[in-house]
Design a protein that fits this description.
Distance between the termini of chain B: 32 Å
Strand content of chain B: 15-25%
Number of strands of chain A: 21
Oligomer: heterodimer
Order of helices and strands of chain B: HEHHEEEEHEEHH
Strand content of chain A: 15-25%
Strand order of the largest sheet of chain B: 1-2-3-4
Structural class of chain A: alpha+beta
Chain lengths: 523, 192
């Protein structure tokens, strides 16, 4: 191990890195892949244009081809230029990145400002042993830097060094090292694997958690075509779907059979896709710990590595959907600063650490490792007021359903009328469960919130990490001496509705007091 | 009055003890209920009233002009539709004018050594407390009307995200500036 480290250091000479340099040409592949991704995600916009110009292109084939070739060469050239103008250097514990062809940007990041180091290895990098390094800073999403092609072992080393900066800054005793020396003593600490997920675990995860949006998001542009092809397919095979779906002339058992078969098929396809998506994201999942850092690695095609320092952790969520409750599995999520609000969901997903479908004992172990004094499962939660039921069930749901019933009776729509009652019962059950689940508690260090419908989610955050407190009262709540409280965290807002005014006030005061009296930084 | 407040903010920021939020005894723990709330500046009330009136007037006159212009004569049906729209906008304008008056009187803020609180809302009353130690940066926002009236809007940004920017509108500029200075000088910020 030691010899390997020194060898790596010899290869990546500090003095050489202090000068501006380009990435390896491998990066061109990344830029091309990115270009294709952007193209595909914009295909919805491009398709009508293509469709409209289709006839024109067919008529003027040469002109059309020239345009297409020009476009492709433009893409290739711009990709190459982007690669050519991307330069970086490492100097005095700063990283500088210059990029941009026409509008130039220059990012300068001191290592100490870097919040978060993410490694991402797309599948085409695997054979060359390269990886992408993404550096996040606190707060602004604009200030993040991404070096898209680095040798994997060098990226690893750089990561260790950047993260060690924090450690040495925090502990004044160890910060007297010359900057050019690697931090040997810290490297000797071995990484401890906290959790791994096997394929059966991931299958369970796929079943219990609908991960289908990962697919749906990518497939959205093709929905229309799909339905079209499916109809055509059925027509070709001699099955007249429209005839089958005309229900008036069929006995009721046949309709039920059709409906259940269709539902079953639909669910089967969805579940299979969801399982595939789960395996895609979480394949070879490991969660490990190195000193105060938690590291998540996973991915079938694109390997992701997210590193989070314990101090960056803002919120722990223990989630169980109703199926999870039955199977006794838990999704544990560690959320950190939510900088990528404006980014797409995929990106936000990669910022937090999810431990998918773990067993209760594993969950307890992880929780106690991360927040040793937490009482998430042992503390007694206080229920929210029954006025919540009165308002949502009594004042909204019941009148709505009553109105619908009257409308359907008057309009003589018996089929819809029969649907109202089950819907009403189901929604009522939802409201009641919502009320039953919603609870809150707080102890010396943490604030806990429990909520959910048929499943149950527990939220736990260190009280001093609160950014802002909202105390809310509408006329309705004021009349019943109730209030709602929102805790704004760096990872999003958590709310407790319909609690007693006095309890709410003391909770607010207590939270503010804990925030202001602590010397600890929230990040 | 404004200058006295300025002096106050400066005083507290200079003699910042390690931690102080007045009383730490449990029975007298600092509570939101005992805050000294201040309303927004009176000129702000006047400005928003005038601005609301102005907006309604402009919309209405534009509609009336487009209805009665001689260049593109409207069909009687469209004419009636626009008349109804004018009526509705007029009523909404009145409602808005009334709401502006009542709601602005419900806007209060209070500053303590460690936090700033702002209440607002007529039907949905909301009290937001922003601990100064969690402030990332401070901005004073001044639109053209606010500049004319010598007003400013104080914005405090925390890590809670852009949608949770703490905002106090209708401050006199000198007050807003001294509050900003107080926050910038606050010990917990420089150490953060």
């Amino acid at each position: 191990m030691d010899t390997a480290e020194t060898k790596v250091l010899n290869v990546y000479d500090k003095n050489a890195l202090a000068h501006w340099q380009r990435m390896s040409p491998i990066a061109i592949i990344y830029f091309i892949a990115n270009f294709i991704k952007v193209l595909l995600s914009n295909i919805v916009i491009l398709l009508p244009a293509l469709y409209l110009s289709y006839d024109f292109i067919m008529e003027n084939l040469i002109l059309g081809l020239t345009v297409i070739i020009l476009l492709i060469s433009f893409a290739v050239i711009s990709t190459f230029l982007r690669f050519y103008f991307f330069q970086y250097r490492l100097k005095n514990d700063h990283i500088d990145i210059r990029s941009g062809v026409i509008s130039k940007t220059h990012i300068n990041l001191p290592f100490t400002r870097i919040q978060n180091v993410k490694l991402e290895q797309p599948i085409y990098y695997r054979w060359f042993n390269y990886t992408c390094l993404q550096l996040d800073t606190a707060g602004s999403a604009k200030q993040e830097a991404k070096i898209v092609a680095l040798k994997a072992d060098f990226a690893e080393q750089l990561k260790t060094e950047i993260l060690a900066q924090h450690l040495s800054k925090k502990e004044p005793g160890t910060c007297n090292k010359p900057a050019d020396q690697p931090l040997e003593p810290q490297k000797s600490v071995a990484e401890e694997v906290l959790n791994t997920r096997s394929i059966p675990d991931l299958i369970i995860h796929g079943l219990t958690n609908n991960r289908i949006w990962i697919f749906l998001g990518g497939l959205a542009p093709f929905f229309d075509d799909f339905s079209h092809y499916i109809l055509q397919f059925f027509q070709k095979t001699g099955v007249d779907i429209e005839h089958l779906l005309t229900i008036t002339d069929k006995p009721i058992w046949q309709i039920i059979l059709y409906a259940s078969t269709l539902t079953f098929l639909f669910l089967l396809i969805i579940s299979l896709c969801s399982i595939a998506a789960s395996i895609l994201t979480f394949y070879r999942y490991t969660l490990s710990k190195l000193e105060d850092r938690y590291i998540r690695r996973s991915g079938l095609f694109t390997k992701h590595e997210v590193t989070m320092r314990l101090s960056r952790l803002q919120l722990v969520i223990r989630q169980q959907d109703w199926l999870d409750v039955l199977l006794k599995r838990i999704n544990l999520t560690f959320e950190q600063i939510n900088v990528s609000v404006n980014h797409n969901q995929m990106n936000a997903q990669n910022d937090k650490i999810i431990v998918p479908s773990i067993k209760p004992n594993e969950c307890t172990k992880l929780l106690n490792d991360i927040y040793p004094e937490n009482q998430m499962m042992t503390i007694s939660y206080q229920a929210i007021s029954k006025q919540f039921l009165l308002k949502n069930w009594g004042l909204i749901l019941t009148p709505l359903c009553a109105t619908l019933t009257i409308l359907f009776i008057v309009g003589n729509k018996p089929l819809l009328l029969t649907a109202v009652l089950p819907l009403y019962v189901f929604l009522s059950a939802l409201v009641v469960m919502r009320w039953y689940r919603w609870g809150y508690a707080s102890d010396e260090n943490y604030t806990y919130i429990r909520k959910g419908f048929f499943g149950v989610d527990y939220y736990c955050f260190p009280t001093y990490k609160t950014q802002q407190v909202h105390y809310k009262q509408s006329w309705f709540l004021k009349r019943h001496q109730l209030c709602s409280i929102n805790f704004v965290l760096a990872a999003g807002t958590q709310s407790i509705p319909y609690i007693n005014e006095n309890k709410g006030l003391s909770l607010t005061d207590d939270t503010i007091f804990k925030v202001e009296s602590t010397k600890k930084s929230w990040m | 009055m404004a200058s006295r407040e300025t002096a106050d903010y400066k005083n507290t920021s200079q003699e910042n003890t390690p931690f102080s939020n007045k009383s730490l005894v449990v029975e007298q723990c600092p509570s939101l209920q005992q805050l000294n709330y201040q309303g927004v500046a009176p000129i702000y009330l006047k400005m928003t009233r005038l601005f609301n009136l102005f907006c309604t007037a402009v919309t209405l006159s534009l509609l009336i002009i487009s209805q009665r212009q001689p260049f593109f004569p409207l069909t009687s049906q469209n004419f009636n539709i626009i008349s109804n729209i004018i009526l509705i906008i007029g009523l909404l304008g009145l409602l808005n004018y009334w709401y502006g008056i009542v709601a602005n009187k419900k806007k209060f803020f209070a500053i303590r050594e460690q936090d700033i609180t702002y209440c607002s809302g007529l039907i949905f009353q909301k009290t937001v407390t922003q601990p100064i130690s969690r402030v990332q940066h401070v901005e004073l926002k001044r639109g053209p009307i606010e500049r004319k009236a010598g007003l400013a809007c104080l914005q405090l940004f925390s890590a809670g995200g852009a949608s949770h920017t703490f905002e106090i509108p209708g401050l006199l500029l000198e007050n807003a500036e001294s509050i900003r200075q107080f926050i910038v000088d606050h010990k917990t910020i420089s150490s953060n």
